Amino acid sequence: MTEQTCNLNLEKEVIEELEQTFQSYFSFEQNTDGYVIAIKLSGTSESAFNYSPILITEIPLSIASFTYLEVVDLSNNAITELPTFFKELKLLEVLILNNNPVSELPDYIFDLQSLKVLSLENTEIKALPEVLANQSELTHLYLGGSNFIGFPIVLNSIASNIKGLSLNDIELLPPNINDYSSLNYFSAILHNFKNLDRLQGLKTLIIKNSKAVKFPFDFKTLPSLIELRFIDCGKLRELPKKLGMINHIEEMTLDFSGCTSLQGIPETFINFNVTFLYLNGCSSIRFLPSSWDIGSIHALNVNWTTPPKNIFKTGARKLWITGSRFSSIRGIGEMSNLNFCVMTDGGLRTIPEEILNCKNLEFLNISGNKVKHIPEFLKDLPKLKSIEIGEMKL
């Protein structure tokens, strides 16, 4: 029996052991030679039939048998430390420890010269060792939700390598942030937007729980953005016009959920090819760009007394609004692309006949409003398949 056959048989035994012990909480991938190269041992099951999480406190030593491991995902457990066999995983590229009470990492983790992605979100990590500065292959570091506060200056020596970075609470980005020239994903609780526009290569920008009210007056455009999210930034009142001056044609996601003070979206954002626009909880929104080509608009729990200006002039195919107080949807007939419409739990009293101009409409749900009956003219909508008004259905 060859050494390879012996090793593969050993790995097979370990797989069977882990599957028996952890069932659907354990999953793996193999390369073309049959060696395990990726494992996931998560406290959250991928099976729809397992609802109760398990909390692994110790990493099984048998995992050391997988000598070709490139990816290890141990998220959603109760792990506080890593066993010493990890220093033998010379091919490890991705280590995910999200949602574990681990408070520090042993230095030998940073001796793994193949390590590219280190994810420590929602852990008790407070500090990073200086040896991280020598991790020349590292490209992604995720610290969001951890106990690490501020900017990890230890990364400065490998700044140009970093492509993805998530941080916890940070007041201001350092002036040398433009040294992070490869950064295309950035997520943080950031309270001052100065220097943010120096990240000219950003494709994904996610800001959460910021205390900032506005952007610097000279804020520049971020020309490569395809995903922009400001989540629960309750004091933010306006967006800079230059943020919308993007000329690429890639599909974009915009999410301003929880931005309760945001007044509107600048007209320059019409340049964006938006697939999804999220305005959940944005009760102060008053205007959107006119003739905006959008895939879908989600505005849940918005408490609008009147629909935002131009919302019915967008090219949205899907419109989902809940919790509004307006009684009329006059203007909805301009949404010629609309095929899915949900406006529930609001103050709507009537359905205007102009909705017949929405000839692509297939589904309409206005349950929880003050509409008392289904107008007969809705039967003239050629593609309408279903309408719901509380208990009434067409």
UniProtKB/TrEMBL annotation:
The keyword Endoplasmic reticulum does not apply. The keyword Repeat applies. Keywords: Leucine-rich repeat, Repeat. GO terms for cellular component: cytoplasm. The lineage of its organism: Bacteria, Pseudomonadati, Bacteroidota, Cytophagia, Cytophagales. It comes from Flammeovirga aprica JL-4. Gene3D superfamilies: Ribonuclease Inhibitor (3.80.10.10). PROSITE patterns: LRR (PS51450). SMART domains: LRR_TYP (SM00369). This is Leucine-rich repeat domain-containing protein.
